[in-house]
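G., the chain you wanted modeled:
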Amino acid sequence: MSTPENATPAPSLRQTDFLPARFSGNELNDDECLAHFLAFEDYLEAHKVNTEDPDNFSNVINTFKRTLGGTARLWLEGKNFTNVSELKQSFLARFSKHQSYISHVQSFNNIRYVKNESADQHLSKIERAASKLGYGDSQIRDKLLTSLPQECRASILMSLPHDAPTKDIVTKAQCYFDLHSTTNSTPEVTFNIADNSTDSDGEIKSLISGMESLKTSVEEIQASLQTSSHPENTDPQSRPSRSPSRRSSPRPSPNRHRSPFSSPSFHRDDRSSSRSRTRNYSPRRHNSRSTNRSSSRSRDSKRTVICFYCNKPGHSQRNCLLRRAHIEQSMNFGNGYQQFPQQNFRPFSSFNTYPPPPNHSNTVTYLQNF
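Predicted structure as tokens:
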């Protein structure tokens, strides 16, 4: 079939047609890396790129670089490959979770001891992960110690030297697991019951009678103890009598030897009497006071003031004339007076008037005339 002369030719593919999206490789994923490389192979097939030609393989590598970004682009930089199969194997080994070296390192570092796991099983798990990375006995030994529980590791380090082989470490770890096993065997208790009804009835009756006799003896002992501890409750005649001297002896007063000047009532009476005499000096003012004042004064007059200096009622020590004369006499002792005057004072009949003031020049004459 011939084509018409005016027919338009089929459009050619552009260089970016069927080019897969960029693969960053930040996360290891088997499906994503495999899907990306399959999309790249579809691109090569659509553009009919000859991958078998060694001279054209550099163009294949450059085209594959355009589909990568981030970590994947840095990984491909500086690497040399001879064919597409080698490129595919290296790419999947790097960015596949189960084939990548980094994934093997992460799985080796994440190994931990599982509860109820034996030491041999834990060691075999570490050896399988180390074989993928090419680790030796020293890395396996260090990982075995660090992955064990803290208490188990401390007991191993205290009982073994630092350069102990892996076999000894496994033995010590298994001993620790056996001693601290959580599966403790529970002892079983069995009972054998025999039908001995006649014998059991007699034993029960004997036990009941023994308990009753024991109860009676305990009650008797308690009664005897109460009687011995409280004899006055049972025999009032035997109660010891107190000595009359102890009962009749008065208790000493705490103020017996106290000075009268230290009593607060003394100063209170002294001030009240002096104020009352000062207020009641004038008879005219006394007659003009109210009934309330007179009633309060009558209540105050019921209390008798006694001088603690001359022991005479009617005045306080502060206004005692004998005390004043003695003070003046002691001051004028060098003027011919050789002895104190006699105490021949009489008490004042009322507080409304005062005697004339004493003559300081002749105190003895004043006292005799008074």
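Residues 243-249, 337-354 have pLDDT under 50 and may be disordered.

Shout if anything looks off.
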